[in-house]
Amino acid sequence: MTGAAPACAAPVTPLTRSGGVDIRGVVGNPGRCWAISGHTAAAARMDPPSARTMFCLPYAGGGASAYAGLRRALADLTVVPVQLPGRENRIAEPPEFTIAGIADEVAPATAEPYVLYGHSMGARLAFEVVRELRRRGLRQPSRLYVGGAHPPDRRVPLAAAVELPDDAFIDQLVRRSDALPELKHLRELRELMMPVLRSDFAWIKNYAFVPEPPIGSPIVAFAGLDDGEAGAAEMLGWARHTTAGFRLRTLRGGHLFVRDRPAELAALISADLAAAHTLPEPDELQLWAGRPADHETVLRRYTGLATAGTSHADGLTLVAAIGGHEPGIGVSVLRARDLGGLSELSADEQAQIEDAAEEDRRWLALRAVAAKRALMAAAGRGTDPASVAFPDLTDPGPWRALDGPEPARWQVVHLSLGEAVAAVAVPYDRVRLSVDVAG
After folding, report:
1. How crowded is residue 100: how many other Cβ atoms within 10 Å of its Cβ?
2. Are residues 58 and 21 in the same domain?
3. Residue by residue, what is the 3-state secondary structure of 36-91?
């Protein structure tokens, strides 16, 4: 294996439950690192689906035409956009819908394998449609694809904008969710779109998640690298809503990449449908979490072709890989109760922890020590840990270290893995994250 980094992890709590890898909630404070948090992740392997039909649900204000690019790019898959009332060829109808009504449109096709894709608001709609079809005893989708969406048990911050006057509401949508800039200036377009936009955002704001058992369909999440509303950090939370396996893929683009980058999204969907494994691209970090017995198979994908590192925990292995033959990659997994002293941290880092609120200190120390160990694994054991420091331990990340006054070449990405924190050091300025949680 070319460029494999040494593991530098303390043992962590066993994470295996009922034959699957149990990757639970965020350690410490939610939202401060990428967190894979679910129930028993991937009790079954994510076998390639045999579906030939994909039903698509739109983002707020969107119609069936939002999927025109995806339809053209997915020539081997029948893409069926569901047209909601109040838009495009249903513009004369009130912009109102129900989950039961949407499920009625999908139900006749459930005799054969199918998949669902929902973008932004559509992801939440698709998730609820899956649960409604389950209540009816109908076939579940072979995949639930979700793009640019907060998990259903989390609020959508942008939804509060629906309470604003028209100008301020539109300004928020344009700045934060890639809505058409013409909405600011074209009165006719605004008059046409405002009723459906306000109706859709009212639905999002009033949505109340009702806990039920996780769905039995694998979930594949897509995040836009430049999406400031629902990026990779937020979308990892979808993992807790399935028992059948989870994947995350990050692609270039903003919130509405389904509209703006359909070919790239189509390529990722096609690769998933074909169970094709691709090597990491130059700005991509691929992570695999699964049982130790399976990790050698994963490593063989990268031998001689990519730089990979591993860290083992009781019942769990994390494999990280980056493209080409970079000088190294560092991986560290650490659990809170195995956190010893802070001798690996600089004086400034120790001072940051001491100055933090008492309830945050152990969390910050855990992240800092895991990050420092990953950094040392990447940079080489001869490096003095205290000479390379992280200037702000409260930064949600990714973290960029300082080597004296100059930025170090390494950037550190954090993930929460149940009772443990993982840190991965990579030589990138920006990171497109791909995650596979295996059975």
Report:
1. 13
2. no
3. ECCCEECCCCCCCCCCCEEEEECCCCCCHHHHHHHHHHCCCCEEEECCCCCCHHHC
Query: Taking the alpha carbons of 164, 166, 171, 174 in that order, is the dihedral positive or negative?
Result: positive
More confident residue, 105 or 16: 105
Answer whether residue 1 is part of any domain. Answer: no
Determine the average pLDDT of the residues in 398-425.
79
Centre a 10 Å sphere on the Cβ of residue 282 and count the other Cβ atoms it contains: 10
pLDDT of residue 289: 84
193/254 same-domain check: yes
C-alpha 384/C-alpha 430 separation (Å) is 25
Residue 8 is assigned to a structural domain of this protein: no
Q: pTM surpassing 0.85?
A: no
Query: Which residue's entry shows tokens 């690192």?
Result: 33
Where is the domain boundary, 243, 273, 303?
A: 273
Specify which residues 146 forms β-bridges with. 118, 221
186: DSSP letter = -
Same-domain status, 174 and 66: yes
Q: How many domains does the chain have?
A: 2
Which tokens hold the place of 226? Answer: 């430049």
Q: What is the DSSP letter of 193?
A: H
DSSP letter at 315? T
Q: Same structural domain for residues 123 and 249?
A: yes
Q: Parallel, antiparallel, or unpaired for β 115-119 and 53-57?
A: parallel
Tokens, residue 327: 């000088």
Task: List, in order, residues 6 or more apart from 42 with CB less than 8 Å away.
Answer: 20, 21, 218, 243, 244, 245, 246, 290, 437, 438, 439
Burial of 370 (C-beta count, 10 Å sphere; 0-12/13-18/19+): buried
Please give the pLDDT value at position 28: 27
How high is the pLDDT of residue 339?
85
Lowest mean pLDDT among 41-50, 385-394, 428-437: 41-50
Same domain, 80 and 169: yes
Dump pLDDT digits (tens) for 308-365. Answer: 888 876 677 889 998 876 667 889 888 877 888 888 898 999 999 999 999 889 889 9
Identify the domain containing residue 229 by its residue range: 48-273
Of 40-54, 213-227, 414-428, minimum mean pLDDT range: 40-54
The C-alpha atoms of residue 96 and residue 335 are separated, in whole angstroms, by 48
Q: What is the pLDDT of residues 127-173, one digit of tens each?
A: 999 999 999 999 999 999 999 999 999 999 999 989 999 889 899 99
- Does residue 230 form part of some domain? yes
